[in-house]
What does this fold into?
Amino acid sequence: MLNVGVIGSSGYTGEKLIEILLGHPEVRITYVSRKNASAASIAEIFPKFKTRIDLVCGPTDVKSAIGKCDLAFLALPHTASMEIVPELLKAKIRVIDLSADYRLKDARSYELFYGVKHGDKKHIKDAVYGLPELYRNKIKDAQLIANPGCYPSCAILALAPAIALDLADLGSVIIDAKSGVTGAGKKLNEAMLFSEINEDCKAYKVNVHQHIPEINQVLSALASKKANVTFVPHLLPINQGMLETIYFSKRNSRKHSGGLIGAYKRFYKNEPFIRIKEKGQFPRIKDVCGTNFCDIGIYEEGDKAIIIAAIDNLMKGASASAVQNMNIMYGFSETEALL
Amino acid sequence: MLNVGVIGSSGYTGEKLIEILLGHPEVRITYVSRKNASAASIAEIFPKFKTRIDLVCGPTDVKSAIGKCDLAFLALPHTASMEIVPELLKAKIRVIDLSADYRLKDARSYELFYGVKHGDKKHIKDAVYGLPELYRNKIKDAQLIANPGCYPSCAILALAPAIALDLADLGSVIIDAKSGVTGAGKKLNEAMLFSEINEDCKAYKVNVHQHIPEINQVLSALASKKANVTFVPHLLPINQGMLETIYFSKRNSRKHSGGLIGAYKRFYKNEPFIRIKEKGQFPRIKDVCGTNFCDIGIYEEGDKAIIIAAIDNLMKGASASAVQNMNIMYGFSETEALL
Amino acid sequence: MLNVGVIGSSGYTGEKLIEILLGHPEVRITYVSRKNASAASIAEIFPKFKTRIDLVCGPTDVKSAIGKCDLAFLALPHTASMEIVPELLKAKIRVIDLSADYRLKDARSYELFYGVKHGDKKHIKDAVYGLPELYRNKIKDAQLIANPGCYPSCAILALAPAIALDLADLGSVIIDAKSGVTGAGKKLNEAMLFSEINEDCKAYKVNVHQHIPEINQVLSALASKKANVTFVPHLLPINQGMLETIYFSKRNSRKHSGGLIGAYKRFYKNEPFIRIKEKGQFPRIKDVCGTNFCDIGIYEEGDKAIIIAAIDNLMKGASASAVQNMNIMYGFSETEALL
Amino acid sequence: MLNVGVIGSSGYTGEKLIEILLGHPEVRITYVSRKNASAASIAEIFPKFKTRIDLVCGPTDVKSAIGKCDLAFLALPHTASMEIVPELLKAKIRVIDLSADYRLKDARSYELFYGVKHGDKKHIKDAVYGLPELYRNKIKDAQLIANPGCYPSCAILALAPAIALDLADLGSVIIDAKSGVTGAGKKLNEAMLFSEINEDCKAYKVNVHQHIPEINQVLSALASKKANVTFVPHLLPINQGMLETIYFSKRNSRKHSGGLIGAYKRFYKNEPFIRIKEKGQFPRIKDVCGTNFCDIGIYEEGDKAIIIAAIDNLMKGASASAVQNMNIMYGFSETEALL
It folds into this structure.
């Protein structure tokens, strides 16, 4: 049995991690913690877990975590992760960090988009970007996983085949993203009150969202040239789930038999969690909600391509993909606890 | 033109008051204010009102309000009203208070249920309980209206005929109430986040809600004996609207031809905002949402009676009933701006 | 491996059965069917199951089902089950029927409340009412399980201790029930359109719902006298989940130490899916949604008792409880695939 | 008093027309009808209108309508309007048609996108496209108004200044639209059930929606060259409201001081229902819901432009804009009953 800790277990991704890990036969949750709060049992914090887990959740104590875990999931807001990662790594604890702290290789970009100094630049280069479909081999041996953001997970999975195979005009990429509210975390913010979100839809952080450099970083690497996508996120009045409608101009389309759909199917042919829709079929959030799947539908006509992808922001966009990474790191079946 | 002020205009009831009053031909909003915040135009606070009203909303300044208004609506949390009512009354400003501060005639009951001292006991006795269907004549000449709470408005309208006509066993009354979230005001509270409310329903303040003494006070007066209703409120994942399902044992039912439905129709026969359903028909929130109506449906079988009533908690349960009171106080058509 | 069929797999309970059974290590789904429709793969009907199950779903063919299954789940509307149960039983197929067809021991009551003739009165007496918490021993050896309705599951679990221990005045029981829309099945009905349900709440079938005789039947048996509960169901604008707020007058309360909460805890002390809340705590739908749990909260003051219970109508109220019954019938761990 | 009829009053746009017209001081509803149904009072069809309007609504009888109205609103599905428009026009009844039947000047395009023959090609050329902000002068004297579709209303208002002033590369226009469910009308369709829409979001009719030729027709006229926009509509789990996020490459931007925002403000400077947001501000559905406003926010950076517009699909996208057209046609204040 692998001993795992969930550091930052009072938010949505922490809650979801506990839920998934409780169903994993090779894993035991041995440590939980949360910030800024007195100790309470997990069942007090989340009555839904009553009778299912019996652990006390107090303020994070890194030494205690080190004594109790082989692997630590960090379900923390940005900046909180980099405060404890160095100590965990030094103690040979493997870390899957769900925050943004180690995703961007360029610390200046991090500092620009997140508006804070980066306090652990040293470990940035060691972090492996935890998207299994692209980086499975590096994930296997990583000590530190930078688990992708939810918008980037969906966008990169939807664009990777087209970009990697040079089928898209990189400069033309427009991502119109729609997300459920848990994507923003459990924040006390008037804009997140039920009566503000319900019966509404709005764009926010129009083309300035902090996930943009993360998407550009991965697409640039795939394309071997600098990406600069247009990205507009919108808030949906739903709890979980994300849909991205992506527009680009096609390139080299004659080279690929079966069009984009054929190319995408070949690219992802061994992936257990990617499902490419047939022509004329498009994904919906409901079909992936509560799962680790990414469903992708494709429209193409002349030079126009439209890729529509759906994931559950808390699952493939956060906690389930973190567990998928753990499965890869420890040689468990990659779909364990996820199917 | 009547000059009116909306003191506390940044909450849901203040917003709704502005919306209704903008459509009232005999009224001009001349003063708005809010607590604890720097001055901003109403259009900045509520972009929906842009181009419709051009007033600056700063911290409440009672002297300024007195200089600008004939009538002040107080859309304030409890305790905030009683801090300014004495000064307003002294200056001969008529006041419609939407808070709970002047509803309970027994200050001890107020202090018990609201957990604070009452700071203006002197004016409690002068306040008229602003339910037009029961107290229209007193409202006409009132200086200070205690506008009813949303749960009590619905419960009292649903029970008044049965209690006043001695058709109900007062001790048997059970009120199972369901309310949209705006009933709780615009509070920064984790329990009110979209992701907490959406796809959920729960009871709260089970039989200890602060609206219980208000309901009991009015029913006791109607019955000329002490009421002690059972009351359980529930939170619905909707913005506006309230449904109450009320159970009681019948009394004296032979005396009334047409049963309860007949008795209710006669009781409310001249009321413009009360609609009694035919046998087998029951109200729904959607039919009253955005209106000042209270729809009432009645089931009776043997000794059992079930009364189901629906109102919009922000309209008949707060701001629209306040405007109805204003219409009565100033001799305007009672339905002006409300139909 | 147990071979199971899901007959009627295109509705909500069929879909949920497939989802749960796919995670059950001792079971293989070998037959699926649906009514009135041409054959299609499960993945075409439910894109969410693509890559997870590869079966063709055509019109029900009982002979084919008999050849392929040891156990058949019937996720059918009422009257459809009784048309095929005799043939299945004759072929020694064990049956878990999620319809109402075999729940009521009194065929006249069935015919009165469902408005149709009962076509298989012969097997009514053989059917075991599939509520494990009350009838686990009979379930073990049953050939035919009448799986309880969702409202009755919740109501009976919430009332059983009080009634069985004679702590409630049976004549005073009032059940105010609130359910998500999947409780009504996937029916093409204008009243079930999104725009009709959303932002609304209403009562329906006020005290005449067909689940009333089912509740009365079980409570009467527990009390050894005739029950006649008052029952008003309401429709909530949520997909899944049910909350019942139940009112009664207490009896014999001095006899039980720890009050109702103590009595309920003792009554259910070995039940893996019943959780009794501490004093002052009440359940919410969110905590049981997607689970087989029934959470119960209790208020008592003088003679008044209020029991609030929550289940997921598709899980503990239908498909998960059906799997719990299967686990009992075949000696699997009772919580397999359910925790 | 103007006598108006609402033909097709049982759908969402008919209901909304009645609601708005009941508040219009210069108008009297004298005729209502619906298809395929026996006669019933409006209050039976819509209990919300009980005590507010007393008319019987039976199957449409054109002669009766002609006898009772000066103006007929047709809130009908496409093809139903063109069956009765000729007779109405012949009788000198002015018509505001909310269906798609007279919007497209090219009947072949209509037949291609709507999949039916056009039965009244003769009157197509007489119809005035009822978008007041562009065609106010023609509307004034029109006998037949083709009231715009909801998606086109929003898209055209959001694009008109940029296209008319040659500030946009017409070939680059991409419209990502999100609409509440009432946009699709009150259809009995499994996909529109609450449990299908709630907690979901999906694209549909990807780049093949029947509103595309309508948008292209108007933009082509403004640009004096052929438009061919990319258009992907999405369904939001809300009742009312629409948001469109529109992407294009800028042209000639140096020519306009104040950038796009300045150009848009000047273009719409006298429009009572268009509100242009300041830089960095974007619209939300909630601010326009229940109103005739179109709120527009603009992002521009280098060559990239993003225009975000919000309307209420039933108001500015249908019934309120129809009333605005009526106000223009009869010389009423243009904002009567709409502000």
In short: Residues 151-313 of chain A form a domain with the Dihydrodipicolinate Reductase; domain 2 fold (CATH 3.30.360.10). DSSP finds 13 helices and 15 strands in chain A. The interface with chain D takes residues 174, 176, 178, 196, 198-204, 206-207, 230, 232, 234, 236-241, 243, 245, 247, 282-286, 289, 297, 299, 301, 304, 306, 308, 310 of chain A (CB under 8 Å). The CA atoms of residues 53 and 296 of chain A lie 36 Å apart.
